[in-house]
Amino acid sequence: MTSEADYGEKIPNNVGLHEDRRLQRALESWQPNFLSWWESMGPALPTRDVYLRTAVNVGREGWAQFGHVPMRDYRWGIFLAERNPGRVIGFGEHKGEPAWAKVPGEYRADLRRLIVVQGDTEPASVEQQRNLGATAPSLYDLRNLFQVNVEEGRHLWAMVYLLHAYFGRDGRDEADELLRRSSGSLESPRILGAFNEETPDWLSFYMFTYFTDRDGKYQLGTLKESAFDPLSRTCEFMLKEEAHHMMVGTTGIDRVVERTAQVMVENDNDDVTGHGAIPIPMVQRYLNFHYSVSLDLFGGETSTNVANYYTAGLKGRWMEDRRRDDHKLTGDGIMVDALTENGEIGQAEVAALTGLNADLRREYIADCQSGVNRWNKILAEAGLTHRLKLPHVAFNRHVGAFAGIEASPDGETLSPQEWDRRKSDWLPSDVDKTYVRSLMQPVYERGKIAAWIAPPRNGINGKPFDYDYVHLS
Ligand code: BYC
């Protein structure tokens, strides 16, 4: 096993693919299907080349190289983090046993399911973002969009590799299905709710990369703990790339808020629409939507699926090795959000194992709050009293304990009639969407930026903001 990728190979990899001709042939026959999916469902804007980061190694130093590449020639490779030969399972009933190099028969179906669900989100996000290139606020942002897209494509490769290498015939079938389902399709939609929503504008894109990619960070963090070592190593490397996606979201929203604050101060007026900026209440409604659909991605607060995954060693907790308990949790309890007997929003104690989705969501929520704090700091530093906030966990939920009720962002339960009457105060309305879309005019001139967003503080890889990040065709 080497860690250097061989870019002379059709499929760059550090998994010794050439040593397994059958697997190599199987993946090479999936490759044209991937490329035709990329052509038809990937970025729609024609470009000559893009300044992209390509993964070349998994080591601590210099794992990626940057350069202008035509997107269709991007080298989607298969990279697993370095193997730790002494690795032992860190939790569940197999705790302390050596990590698995292969899939144990009894866990095959569950592992395949987890890998398929993870894999399904990757092409879904590329599909959702397909048309955003037409309206990028700057070449810098356009490049970041394409970077996110090619890396999500690589993450699809990562899951397809696992399916082909470890799940035989049904793994290959699942890999084909990953290219057949499509985001928003009525006949064969993507598996998880948030991945069938639209990403029609750049405010949605930043919210998506902040809130939904962050679910990816936490889910990958739990799969990195997996007893199935190839999955663990794959996720470890994916997490490295994910950090950039979240930076795009975090700083994207920073820049929207910064620009809005600037216009508010300059004009001493909350209504910034006359100046082509996005009003804070509108930013809040987009935030409410993306946060709540992302909370749904964690599954129910109580789940026998997650209890089984944990006990079997398939999916751990966030930072499993930092937890100070027995890593088996069989006798423990945990408080989770729940509906009380009389239908009120409250909490209940459940077995720790069945409450693990809620445990992970709690970590996620704390992380989301840090973004809100930073955006509020921007508002405060501009001398404004306006603040953004995360809505209540029961707000706009379609999965879990609160799926059957309606609640306001403050956590007040509402009748369905009241919800219908007031929801446009809390979720993006047609007026909001039309307004935001009206701002989405492409700015493709070097060093220029749209009026609704501030320029970034830093460029990419030490390049300035006005670098020629993308050459259009
Ligand atoms: N939509 O036991 P339950 C990313 C299903 S994002 C539709 O409560 P469980 C990325 C569930 O599948 C990270 N269905 O939950 C981000 C189950 O169905 P079955 C993606 C849903 O199973 C941006 C049933 O409801 N990775 O990487 O404990 C860009 C009962 O579920 C939803 C993963 O999610 C939903 N929202 O947990 C690009 C990791 N929620 O089995 C990429 C792998 C639940 O009864 N997936 N259901 O037919 C998992 O770990 C788990 O499947 C879930 C659900 C966390 C998703």
Could you walk me through the main structural features you see in this protein, from its secondary elements to its overall organization?
This protein has a three-stranded antiparallel β-sheet with strand order 2-1-7, with helices on one face. A two-stranded antiparallel ribbon has the order 3-4. The chain has a two-stranded antiparallel sheet with strand order 5-6. It has helices at residues 21-41, 108-128, 139-166, 168-180, 202-223, 229-267, 280-295, 304-312, 356-381, 416-426, 430-439; strands at 47-55, 64-69, 333-339, 345-351, 406-407, 413-414, 470-472. With 473 residues, it is mainly alpha-helical.
Count of alpha and pi helical runs: 11
What's the N-to-C terminus distance?
40 Å
Helix content: 40-55%
Multimeric status of the protein: single chain
Short recap of the structure:
With 473 residues, the chain is mainly α. The protein contains 11 helices and 7 strands. Helix 2 packs parallel to helix 4.
